[in-house]
Amino acid sequence: MSAEYDIAETLDVKGASCPMPVVKTKSAIDDLAEGEVLEVLATDPGSVSDIDGWASGTAGVELVDQEEGEDVYKHYVRKTE
To answer: Which tens digit of pLDDT belongs to each residue from 6-47?
Structure first.
């Protein structure tokens, strides 16, 4: 786990498939304050590109990092505005 950012909240979408990880990530990020980071735990390999694409095309969010584990993909999304 990187010490570069503090996790404000962890969203567990393990077992959910596209588009639910992105839908739930968007909903959770809306509840955060500016600058806070959301950790998303997913098991869908497609979530890597889905969340990357969503963050790239969405104002006010930034994909800070993604980690691919054996069974779980971790995504770190910061609310920027």
So the answer is: 899 999 999 999 999 999 999 999 999 999 999 999 999 999
DSSP for 1-15? --SSS-EEEEEE-TT
Full strand arrangement of the beta sheet holding 7-12: 7-12, 37-42, 73-79, 61-68
Please give the Cα distance from 71 to 59 (Å, whole number).
Answer: 30
Active site annotation includes 18: yes
Out of 8, 16, 18, 41, the active site residue is 18
Burial class (CB in 10 A: 0-12, 13-18, 19+), 17: middle
Answer positive or negative: Cα dihedral of 64, 39, 6, 71. Answer: negative
Q: How far apart are CA 75 and CA 56, in angstroms?
A: 13
Q: How many other β-carbons are positioned within 10 Å of the β-carbon of residue 42?
A: 28
